[in-house]
Amino acid sequence: MAELFDIDRSVITKHLKNILVEKELDECSVRRIMRKKIGRDIFENIEYAHNFFASHKEIARRLKNKNPYTITIIIESLDPKLWNKKEYVKKTKREIEPLYIGLLYQSFSEEYGESEGNNLYAKWLEKYRSIWKKSARYKTIDDYIINHELERRYRRAIMKRYKNIARLKAPRVIMERERYYRLPEPFSRVDWRNPYDNIFIWHDKNKKLAVRGGSGSSGQRETNSKFIFGFALINRKQPVPSYLFIYTSENKLKFAKSFRSLRVPGYDIGSNYFLSLDERKKILRGVKLMEWKDFFKVEKIDYRNY
Predict the structure, then answer these.
(1) How far apart are the C-alpha atoms of 6 and 155, rounded to whole Å?
(2) Can you give 213-278 as a three-state secondary structure string?
(3) What is the pLDDT of residues 103-127, one digit of tens each?
(4) pLDDT tens digits for 214-229?
(5) Nearest residue to 240 (alpha-carbon basis) of 261, 213, 259, 210
(6) Are 59 and 53 in contact (CB under 8 A)?
(7) Residue extents of the structural domains in the chain
(8) With 90 as the cut, is the pLDDT of residue 11 above it?
């Protein structure tokens, strides 16, 4: 608005404050509108990047003039009362192996142990692979081994322990529940091992490209560290804006705060992407790190220097 009317930002702020004090507009409604607009703009027209960046220095060199910014979403745990409600989780039935198969492998493991059992099973794989390929009866080589090795060894003992053999061999079904992640595409799925979702974005011609970092896997931690260091190098010469959201325990994306310069979670920095402590400190100078104590429900976020 300040740019639109060519006046100082403080004038706009003062005018809005007076409007709210005089109750000309409802403050909560104004905040909701502003938050929705921020969310829509920064998530708009984004594709996943397929570019490969060998190092944080390459990231800084190639993206310094492409208006980079970050989005961090702190992910609260889903309210336990909502795990059975279809509005909050996707339920999928999945067939799993019969109990009988599990008992066969359990008996094998109890007899041979992990190391000796793995060696013996590897020999069976080598022995039966060519025979199994010629057979149309068995879907997998494991099915062949179950029939020709495990059942011969353990079937009789299992039958003595269980009377209802039909039930023992019947297929089983489990109900899987996947929590919905209600973000704009292409970010509508997330690795739920992550307590936060870090999205690094930059402009590229008439669209925006993005990569994601987090703590859920070694690859996510490497991406997270590499891009934090790369964006931090850019941030030393030109501010890299950052936006903070919270994905609440009720699956709502809530805008929390925007920052003029780089702000990132203070967790996992340097994981799977090694830099010396001195180099990290030098690169991250001036970058505020976000920390929160409760990963189930965020009450307070602290900011500190590296």
Answers:
(1) 84
(2) ECCCCHHHHHHHHHHHHHHHHHHCCCCCCEEEEEECCCCCEEEEEEECCCEEECCCCCCCCCCCHH
(3) 999 999 999 999 999 999 999 999 9
(4) 988 899 999 999 999 9
(5) 261
(6) yes
(7) 1-33, 43-85+181-305, 98-170
(8) no
Phi, psi of 243 (to 5 degrees): -130, 135
Inter-axis angle of helices 151-161 and 99-134, nearest 10 = 160
**What confidence score (pLDDT) does residue 21 get?**
55
- Residue 60 Cα distances to 129, 219, 237, angstroms: 50, 20, 10
CA distances from 36 to 39, 42, 198, 205, 215 (A): 5, 10, 19, 25, 28
Question: Using CA atoms, how far apart are residues 90 and 87, in angstroms rounded to an integer?
Answer: 8
Which segments of the chain does DSSP mark as H helices, in order? 2-5, 9-21, 27-42, 56-63, 99-134, 141-145, 151-161, 165-169, 218-235, 277-283
Q: Report the alpha-carbon distance of residue 182 to residue 251 in Å, rounded.
A: 7
Record the tokens describing residue 20, joined without a space.
Answer: 């709210």
Residue 223, token pair as written in the block = 């991406």
